[in-house]
Amino acid sequence: MSDYKNAGMPPPSREFSRKAAIVGVGETDYYLDYKAERAKAPGYEPPTTEGLVLTAFERALAESGLERGDIDGLSTSFTYGGPEPEALAQMLGIKPRYSIQNGNIMAGPLPIACAAIAAGKCDTMVMVYSVASRAIGRQYGGSTYAGAAGAGAPSSYYYYLPWGWSSQAAHWALMFRYYQATYGATEADLGAVALQLRQNASINPNAVMQTPLTLQQYLDSRYIVRPLHLFDLCVVNDGAVCLIVRRADMARDLPHKPVLVAGWGEAKVKNDKMHTMVRERLRPIMQDAGGQALAMAGMDLAEIQHFEGYDASSIHLINQIEGFGFVEPGAGLKFCQEGNMAVGGKLPVNTSGGNLSGSYMHGWSQIVEVVRQLRHEAGPRQIAGIQASMSALVQTDQAHPIIFTRGE
Amino acid sequence: MSQSTSPSREKRPDRALGAGHDDFWAWCGKGELRLQHCADCGKITWPVALACEYCGHTSFDWKRMSGRGKIVSWCSFERDYYAGLLPIPWMTILVELEEGPLFISNPVDITEQDIRFGMPVAVEFIACEDSAGGFSLPVFRAA
Predict the structure, then answer these.
(1) What kind of architecture, by CATH, is found in domain A166-231+259-408?
(2) Residue scoring higher pLDDT (A284 or B6)
(3) Of A106, A307, A369, B83, which is least surrounded by CB within 10 A?
């Protein structure tokens, strides 16, 4: 078995466009698993990475219409550790001729898989991702992280510990305070984002948070890092996602419409990180990476009918709507308040509830939602007649958009 | 609280120490805010790094900042990320130094009620302590 550790993303190139398609998706029971973890009934056992992955894999394989013997590639992405590819292949009952330990968050793994397929390394790759944040007691701030993962804090904020500044939430809080000063937005204006995503989640039976949220409840919720409230920040839940990616010319005549990976881009902040983050809200890297993805797909931004952004926080989703150019800088909150991010609006966004209310799978569940929308199988939240979507994983210093189109 | 802790020193989460970092804190100990100034391109890199974030050059001198700046943003922690070490709410500020870099710090005698965008501030140093010992921490007061 070839074994390759992810060394970086393939640069966007027309030769990779639409050469691979997603033909199967599987997710774990985010809602039920979260409820069980919160309730901790007697005898409750936290989920394991292996158990979650197996569930997602079985579901993806079943709906893809493929057999285990059709799988000849394996990609593993574990945020806090997981089995080696050989052990996992054995557990899943597959015999891949090519396997990759493929990073973790959705900032590269899918383009890397597509490039491997285009290069003939395999024809049909199973990609698995799993996170067990709650099971290991993950905390997204402070000097150290609790639990077995034991990793030090990311370099983006460890340096400021003596001033008591840490956590992802603090990044978004500084951004929103600056946004308020620049555009005059209020906390109630920002609340529109959490309300919209909760509304989206309310018609997704697998979303972690489905109970409707009112503006008053939002404003009354506790602050985590002022000016951001609890509902401005993503949920933390356990789960797994499986994608089955196949050579596009072999992806026809399966039970579901193939969803083609048409373009991708990558850009990172090289310097002036704090300035780019707080005062430019990462627009330069989104413009760069978004432009790469559109050029690779041979499309204009106006052709994108659906956006699945990385809503680690409410304001950061607005950063992305503005930064990729769907609306002008400063216009994002009004765009949301007017209902344009709802299904039926000008640009439906995070239609399964996103990270704020749906599930926090580090960008992988957004890909699943893209697939359901482009297959026209999203049920009550289906965007009518949709042909093209964009997903994006945007962190505090890098942007990874991907463009998808509905196949034949 | 440990007997060896001086009551006049504020307990803080641990600093990053090592090459470069030690120089920064040593200058703070002398009451000077100095940042890495690239010997090649002349730009300032902050936080401390092994190479210039603009040109990659690895030799620096430590350039003294005027200590003057203005408030760019701020946020207050209502969640206790440090197991009771710091009082909650805990206020942090983002200061644009006169020389350009954006510097995360804490306010002195500036409250959530009276802080303003663009407010002029000036550096001062307070006595702090972490698990590596005592140190001087640069913080900012309204100028």
Answers:
(1) 3-Layer(aba) Sandwich (3.40)
(2) A284
(3) B83
